[in-house]
Amino acid sequence: MFKDRDIICFLGDSITAAGMWMAEVYQILRKKYKIKCFNCGVSGGSARKAVQYIQSECLIHNPDYVSVMFGINDIDRLLYIKENENLENLVELKKQAIDCCVKSYEGIVEQIMESGATPIICIPVPHDQVSDVPAENCDCQSAMDILEVEFRKIAQKYDCPIVDFKAAFMPLLGQEGIMNPDRVHPTEKGHHIMAQTFLHDLGEIDSVDFETPFEFEEWNKKRYETEHKLHEINFVEYAALFDVGWSQGKTFEEKKQIAKERYDEAEDKSLFIPSAYLSYIENIDNRFRMKGDIAKLTIF
Q1: Could you tell me whether strands 65-69 and 7-12 are parallel, antiparallel, or unpaired per DSSP bridges?
Q2: Under a CB-based contact definition with an 8 Å cutoff, are residues 149 and 124 in contact?
Q3: Does residue 240 surpass a pLDDT of 60?
Q4: Model-level pTM greater than 0.85?
Q5: Domain architecture of the chain: domains with CATH
Q6: Structural Rg of the chain based on CA atoms
Q7: Which of 202, 221, 199 is nearest to 210 (CA)?
Q8: What are phi and psi of 155, to 5 degrees?
Q9: Environment class of 12 (CB within 10 Å of its CB; exposed 0-12, middle 13-18, buried 19+)
Q10: pLDDT tens per residue, range 123-161
């Protein structure tokens, strides 16, 4: 499917931002083509939020292909927990969330195509409703199934290739080491399954190998680590931790001060969000240097 000089961007939420599956895809494709890949995932991202950053974080790379995976943050999982099952307008709220996701998703696909790139529609990793873990099972896969139908319609309408992560994961749910206890995020092995599925569904490998662990090459490891710091910055910038427009007109120092206040307010500073605040404070001044480092490590 791909060829020399192609640029592939990966747009999505925290499962994309985590980067392991994209890093494996890139490492394998680099052995076949002079190709560039950019991870444009944002933790906490959703189709409706991606409109805010698709140009600055994704299309700015002038991609030939954009992998798109959203869904789990769009459906409002709180609507599917037992405590909310008697909400008066529950059915309508669920429908509104799904409709908003589909409308935003199609808008993203249209923006990608207007830029001259080809969208790659990814059927999202399913919510793990099988494993016996402490995390509450919010029974939201029914909403994800509705999104799958709509995403396939969009793929057909715009003649886009499809990668089916759901089909790969469903038979494996419940097996140890595939999904994290939060029921949402794949483990390292899960990311390996994603990478193999992506390459197979797009015709880049003949068969999948889910058992052989992925090992970073040194150039790729350095790139991954730098990219991860940038994703923590983007999480704070774009994941609606602050009011819309919170950073407008503010200097880096002012934004760092706001992040510091949020970090100081956190009771458990070891959790992901406080850690992201701290990383933001430490790295925001170096954001553009790190983007330069990424560019250097991505040269053919």
Answers
A1: parallel
A2: no
A3: no
A4: yes
A5: 7-213 (3.40.50.1110), 216-300 (no CATH)
A6: 19
A7: 199
A8: -60, -40
A9: buried
A10: 999 999 999 888 888 889 999 999 999 999 999 999 999
